[in-house]
Amino acid sequence: MTSLTVHHRRGSYPVRFASLKEALESLPESAFLFTDRNVLRAWAKALPRSLHRMVFNPGEESKSLAQFEAGLRWLSAAGADRASTAIALGGGVVGDLAGFVAACFMRGVPYVQIPTSLLAQVDSSVGGKVGVDLPEGKNMAGAFHPPTEVWICLETLTTLPERQFANGMAEVWKCGFILDAELASRLERVVLTPQSDDLADVVRRCIELKTAVVEADEEDRTGARAILNFGHTVGHAIEQHSGYKLLHGEAISVGMVAEAELGERLGITEKGTSGRIRTDLASAGLPTTYAKIQSPALLELMQRDKKAERGEMAFSLITRVGECKLVRAVPRMEVEAALSAL
Ligand SMILES: NC(=O)c1ccc[n+]([C@@H]2O[C@H](COP(=O)([O-])OP(=O)(O)OC[C@H]3O[C@@H](n4cnc5c(N)ncnc54)[C@H](O)[C@@H]3O)[C@@H](O)[C@H]2O)c1
Ligand SMILES: [Zn+2]
């Protein structure tokens, strides 16, 4: 079994690569499992029958205050106490929601992440951000509550729908584009699938890269963590504008092409990078343009991005593949021009 360690203000936690069987056999005694219906359908047979479980409806709609309350009240009714541990078995929705329930139940109980989507394995399960959405916006209520353990059980990805796997691949490519040129080249050489021999190595590398960034800026305050937002200023706007019909990874895929184009226009990104990124993402089955890319509403949404200050847009831009930096006060005209080039 291989493992990595993530350090945070109050300690550290291991990220272990193991089978789901091993992960479930290692759970603490008083464990309360949160999952969703899809994951339960696929993996019910692996779960010990005696394990207390709460099953959410799949999808972002469950990341709500109502389900947060339901989770807290279920823990209470099922007999959990301060010595209990919450287990999140599922994608990023279950992880964020169960993690937030754990952060608040009796002022905080430990929780273990067993991410079952590629996106959750490479991104949301590490870093300690937990929370729910409000009608006013995504992730508007939340906390920093690091897990006590993360288990990466790659076999869980074999039941993940293909579109969801590609969705996670967008974040994998992003890691290469912003932080690791060798990873980007490797992804260009092999087509990753849930069965690939290379998958373990690639997932591990993405977690290592994210870990280094979040350890340097645990609470997202210094701007260091904001570099992970490459493709996300445009991507979040597209995601919202599409009414969440596009998945997060699909929207940031278009966002990465647009922001590489923007970087080239600003003379920050090496020429030819946006073309390379477009080819890479298309080969992974991800979209590289959006039908309503020229809608003025997209720019309005971007100006409300969390990195924007007084309406001035900020972007994490690649300098060349494998390197990036945060660029503030990007002129609106340049953004419009980059979008129209898509
Ligand atoms: N906390 C963070 O740092 C962080 C970072 C990135 C994203 N997120 C959050 O993560 C969420 C997105 O995560 P996601 O893409 O995993 O979405 P998700 O949890 O909705 O999972 C995607 C779909 O795949 C299904 N699924 C998951 N694992 C499966 C499996 N092994 N077999 C079959 N079906 C499976 C789910 O039921 C769901 O329908 C968003 O809410 C986002 O805000 C959080
Ligand atoms: Zn993302």
Describe the structure.
By secondary structure, the protein is an alpha/beta fold. Helix 10 (248-265) packs antiparallel against helix 11 (273-283). It has 13 helices and eleven strands. Zinc ion is lined by residues 171, 232, 248, 252.
The averaged pLDDT comes out at 95
List ligands, each type once: nicotinamide-adenine-dinucleotide, zinc ion
The chain-level structural class is alpha/beta
What can be said about the biggest beta sheet?
7 strands, mixed
Number of contiguous helices? 13
Strand portion: 15-25%
Number of strands: 11
Radius of gyration: 20 Å
Q: What is the chains' assembly state?
A: single chain
Give the strand order, joined by hyphens, for the main sheet.
1-2-9-6-5-3-4
SSE run: EEHEHEHEHEHEEEHHHHHHHEEH
N-to-C span: 44 Å
Low-pLDDT runs of 5+ residues are none
The helical percent reads 40-55%
Brief overview, please?
The chain has 342 residues and is α/β, with parallel strands linked by helices. It has 13 helices and eleven strands.
Task: Jot down its keywords.
342 residues; alpha/beta; two-stranded antiparallel sheet; 13 helices; 11 strands; globular; binds nicotinamide-adenine-dinucleotide; binds zinc ion
